[in-house]
């Protein structure tokens, strides 16, 4: 996990929200600190429309229908058992949900809310360029603060 510091991550949470941000820090509970974070979620209206369309098509009750008709689940779902496992062409979704997006900035995300974590992009800058010496970098004092003369 420490190798993912400064990587841009996509995180899916329990409540179906997606966060995309740069990982700054984490702990043993998988609590994450993300910077420059954007949240996206499906709106309630869009969620209800998707649910209604799937019920009209009969997709949600197909397993219950299979049990009542004593058919194998593959037959009730009209699955082609001879189809390849990894098809090259995928079927386009019939309904595209409305996503609301908002920029959150710096957030702390609790580990118990995280369902999945995937890498969007690598670190935006190389470590050597971020840590290079130059104007604006901090340097240690030549003598400790305790031994400095106090201004009166």
In short:
This protein has 152 residues and is an alpha+beta fold.
What does it look like?
By secondary structure, the chain is of the alpha+beta class. Helix content is 20%, strand content 30%. A hairpin with a 5-residue loop joins β2 and β3. The protein is built from four helices and five strands; from the N terminus they run βββαααββα.
Measured as a percent range, the helix fraction is: 10-25%
Could you say which structural class the secondary elements and strand pairing correspond to? alpha+beta
Question: What is the CATH architecture assignment of the domain at 1-57 and 96-123?
Answer: Roll
Shape: elongated
Strand segment tally: 5
Which H/E pattern describes the elements? EEEHHHEEH
Largest beta-sheet characterization = 5 strands, antiparallel
CATH topology descriptor of the domain at 1-57 and 96-123: SH3 type barrels
GO molecular function, one term: RNA binding
Keywords: Cytoplasm, mRNA processing, mRNA splicing, Nucleus, Ribonucleoprotein, RNA-binding
InterPro entries: LSM_dom_sf, Sm, Sm_dom_euk/arc, snRNP_SmB/NAA38-like
Domain Sm: 1-123
């Amino acid at each position: 996990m420490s190798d993912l510091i400064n990587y841009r991550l996509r995180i899916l949470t329990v409540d179906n929200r997606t966060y995309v941000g740069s990982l700054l820090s984490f702990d043993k509970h998988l609590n994450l600190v993300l910077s420059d974070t954007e949240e996206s979620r499906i709106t309630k209206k869009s969620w209800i429309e998707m649910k209604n369309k799937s019920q009209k098509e009969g997709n949600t009750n197909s397993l219950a229908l299979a049990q009542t008709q004593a058919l194998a689940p593959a037959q009730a779902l009209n699955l082609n058992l001879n189809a390849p496992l990894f098809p090259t062409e995928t079927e386009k979704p019939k309904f595209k949900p409305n996503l609301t997006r908002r920029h959150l900035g710096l957030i702390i995300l609790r580990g118990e809310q995280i369902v999945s974590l995937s890498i969007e992009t690598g670190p935006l800058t190389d470590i050597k360029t971020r840590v290079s010496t130059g104007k604006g970098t901090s340097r240690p004092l030549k003598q400790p603060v305790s031994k400095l003369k106090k201004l009166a």
